Amino acid sequence: MASSLVRGKYVVCGGEGGGDSRVIEDGAVYQRDGEIVEVGTYQDVRSRYDPDEEIGSSDFMVVPGLVNAHHHVGLTPFQLGALDAPLESWIIARWALRDVDPYLDTLYCAMQMIESGITTVMHNHMMARLPAGEGLYESASRIVQAYDDSGMRVAFSLSHRDQNHLVYENDESFLAGLPSDLSRDVRSYLNARPISLEDYLTVCAELFDRSRSDRTRIFISPHNVHWCSDEMLRAMKEFAVRRGTGVHIHLQETAYQKMYGARHWGKSPLAHLADLDFLGPDVSCAHGVWLTDSDIGILAETGTAVCHNPSSNLRLKSGVAPLNAMLERGVTVAIGIDEAGINDDNDILQEMRLAQKLHRVPGVASASPTSHDILHMATAQGAKVTFFDGEIGRLAPGMRADMVLIGLEGISEPFLHPDTDIVDALVYRGKGSDVDTVIVNGEVLLRGGELTKLDKAAILGRFKESLAQPMSQREIARGELSRRLLPYVQRFFEGWPLEHGAPHYYYNSREL
Ligand SMILES: [Zn+2]
User: Fold this and answer.
1) Are 190 and 485 in contact (CB under 8 A)?
2) How many angstroms separate the CA atoms of 189 and 252, rounded?
3) What is the signed CA dihedral for 125, 128, 131, 134, rounded to 10 degrees?
4) pLDDT tens track for 371-424
5) Which residues keep their CB under 5 angstroms from ion ligand 1?
6) 156 CA to centre of ligand 1 in angstroms
């Protein structure tokens, strides 16, 4: 390891306790062996240290490494053949997706993420995407290995479920209503590769025990409340508590999931989790679109976090999460790109911009997230939910040296008013293509826009080659089964008219 001095026209240090970011003009960060030793003005820091290397210049701004707090895959479902659709039918349409090599797929998205300034990711791997012939542990460990090879930090989890695989009711009840040949084929598909809770926990324990990298955390993940029995939820929580690790779960992503709670427990899925004593600062929930006021109170009281995924929520017709209400109540909210982002490209700067614009509600006095709020969500809050809290998320002595240099030219040329707050400039105008240098733990992963640890051309070549094979019989059959099943899934949810409570936001006109 070595030392370096990282210089920028602006060094955005991140805010203490959610306040505005401290910004140092003509600043520098001195790091040694991956730890930040000092942050200050360039002249001051430069005069006191003799770094092995000087990185950056006054052409850049320096920000803490960005955190993508909810992520699943490399090639997007769209690239793999599934057009955006409401979540409930999209899940079935995803059966038609091509199988991909998990190692190459992860390297592919790690490259995209590093190029857009992401240094840490919450990677949630779904069972349905296991490639043929490979065991669960092998597949999962190859993903973790890919992150290790990329140099990124990862909070990795395998998600698991044990019920309601087709629609939001018992599988057998739903299968009983299908034509007999379809029912038989779907049942045999569901039974093809069952993974028991015990097997799942064994694999998680193995991943946990064998993980050696300081940059890796192994989490546990029940897929979503209605997809897991209480027995599964309890066992997973118990595992997390025993191992001192985090729990990542999807929650109230759609109106139907909220309605499922009302029908099955007489309360929201989140309130059901509270009854199970499941919640706490170790738990982060992806989406949280259909939260009630009481739910937001539960999140705030228990310290449970939400990972906000604005693009995904729009793309899958899930809705708009009540971000302003959550921020007002002090809920920990991080930002995730989920499976693609608005441009289908894993650019977190654009996701941050969307998160900010989406919650600008009409009204001269209405609250809306500031650029500093958004940056805080993408840094310190992301650090918290991925269990790297106290190590990353801010640029301060004693923290790990994770930072991003972003070129100012694209953001501020030919003119940007000199009074403009640089964090506003970043959130209003920054793009992944402005990211020049990415550093994790003092190690440079991207320099001058070029990856240093990964051979991009070679990886893309191997990845393309692996996908150039014709579709396998297994993939073709799965796609066909999905197309036969979809109309019945659609019909099921047509029988659930959307219920409306008092909305959090007023975007549209009502009757006068
Ligand atoms: Zn997700």
Assistant:
1) no
2) 27
3) 80
4) 999 999 999 999 999 999 999 999 999 999 999 999 999 999 999 999 999 999
5) 286, 338
6) 13
Mean local confidence (pLDDT), 180-195: 91
Cα-to-centroid distance, 35 and ligand 1 (Å) = 32
CA of 112 to the centre of ligand 1 (A): 18
Q: 403-407 and 66-71 as β-strands: parallel, antiparallel, unpaired?
A: unpaired
Q: How far is the CA of 93 from the centre of ligand 1 (A)?
A: 15
Distance (Å) from CA 111 to ligand 1 centroid: 20
CA-based diameter of the chain, in Å? 79
Distances (CA, A) of 150 to 122, 144, 210, 510: 15, 10, 18, 51
Question: For residue 481, how far is its CA from the centre of ligand 1 (angstroms)?
Answer: 23
pLDDT at 130 > cutoff 60: no
How close is the Cα of 338 to the center of ligand 1, in Å?
5
180: left (phi over 0), alpha (psi -120 to 50) or beta: alpha
Contacts of 140 (CB under 8 A, 6+ apart): 125, 156, 158, 203, 207
Instruction: Output the CA 255–ligand 1 centroid distance in Å.
Output: 16
What span, in angstroms and rounded, lies between the C-alpha atoms of 45 and 121?
31
221-222 and 153-160 strand pairing: parallel
pLDDT digit string, tens, across residues 354-367: 999 999 999 999 99
- The CA-based dihedral angle spanning residues 467, 472, 475, 479, taken in that order and rounded to the nearest 10 degrees: 100
Q: Look up residue 424 and give its DSSP letter.
A: H
DSSP code string of 12-30: EEE-GGGSPPEEEEEEEEE
Residue partners of 210: CB distance under 8 A and separation at least 6? 141
pLDDT at position 129: 46
Query: How is 302-360 classified by DSSP, letter by letter?
Result: HT-EEEE-HHHHHHTT-----HHHHHHTT--EEE--BTTTTTTS--HHHHHHHHHHHT-
* Among the listed residues 16, 18, 38, the one whose alpha carbon sits nearest the alpha carbon of residue 27: 38
Q: Which domains does the chain have, with CATH numbers?
A: 3-64+400-451 (2.30.40.10), 66-392 (3.20.20.140)
Distance (angstroms) between ligand 1 centre and the Cα of 253 equals 9
Tens digit of each residue's pLDDT (9 = 90 or more) over 36-79: 999 999 999 999 999 999 999 999 999 999 999 999 999 999 99
Distances in Å between the Cα of 97 and the Cα atoms of 77, 125, 129, 452 are 7, 15, 9, 31
**Ligand 1: centre distance to CA 312 (Å):** 8
